[in-house]
Amino acid sequence: MPEPTVPIEWAAAASPHSPSAHLAADYFQSYSVVGLLAVIGVLFVAVAFGAGRLLRPVVPTPEKLLTYECGVDPVGEGWAHTQVRYYVYAFLYVIFAVDSIFLFPWATVFAAPGYGATTLVEMFIFLGFLAVGLLYAYKKGVLEWT
């Protein structure tokens, strides 16, 4: 009985010595380095917290159990109302600051030959999403200070 024949392309892809197998090994090896560094980082933090817990003195006193507010004895309740608008402004600032960072790489790609029209359309779509979000925040009255 004759042995089945395999197309040459399949045999090259299945071979452990093929270029594609070598590229896949390099690809996964780079992720293994990242995984190893993540494990080392988690272990470092765990050892530091464990050492701190074992080495610190535990002597609770009434003064140590008081709430500390910048050297001033606390007065009144421990609950304070904070207006949400401060967080919304901060959040909107972060969103637009991060989005403006994306404009710089876009400008460099836009200058490359062959990418002009595509990157221009992509950036207008991106800026359109930002404009819709800003319009939504404006319509909801989030941007009004009073």
Give the CA-based shape.
Answer: flat
Low-confidence stretches: none
Write down the overall mean pLDDT: 78
Instruction: State the helicity in percent bands.
Output: 55-70%
- String of helices and strands: HHHH
The radius of gyration over CA amounts to: 29 Å
Strands, total number = 0
Percent in strands: under 5%
Oligomer: single chain
Separate helix tally:
4
Report the end-to-end length measured between terminal Cα atoms.
89 Å
- Supply the helix-strand structural class: mainly alpha
Could you provide a short overview of the structure?
This protein has 146 residues and is mostly helical. Helix content is 66%, strand content 0%.
Structure in words:
The protein is mainly α and 146 residues long. It has four helices and no strands. Helix 3 runs antiparallel to helix 4. The longest helix has 37 residues. It is flat, with a radius of gyration of 29 Å. The mean pLDDT is 78.
Strand-helix topology:
Blueprint: H1 8-14, H2 19-55, H3 84-111, H4 116-139
Any key phrases for this structure?
mainly alpha, 4 helices, 66% helix, flat, single chain
